[in-house]
Design a protein that fits this description.
Oligomer: single chain
Number of domains: 1
Number of strands: 2
Largest sheet: 2 strands, parallel
Distance between the termini: 72 Å
Radius of gyration: 34 Å
Helix content: 40-55%
Number of helices: 2
Shape: rod-shaped
Strand content: under 5%
Structural class: mainly alpha
Amino acid sequence: MRALFGIVPLALLAACASPVLPPQVVIQTKLIAPSIAPDLFECGNAPRAPGQAIMQSEVARYIVVLWAWGSECQSHLLAVQQSLAVAAASPTLIPSKDR
């Protein structure tokens, strides 16, 4: 029994003396082609033009609303095009399953 008490501490000390290797971290990057809905490539319905019996103030309001609508549409289309350009520049692109 005394021999066992002598061997166990030696075994524990030997286990602590071995070099401890840090865990190895593996990082895998998977690039996926974006699946963009077709309606994002189109602008929504344009504002309706005022009727025939109108005043110049109504035409001016319509022009301002139409300009704002066009500006927003162009910015959205530009954002979609930029995201597709970034995806196309990726060397290892995996097609998405949605297509």
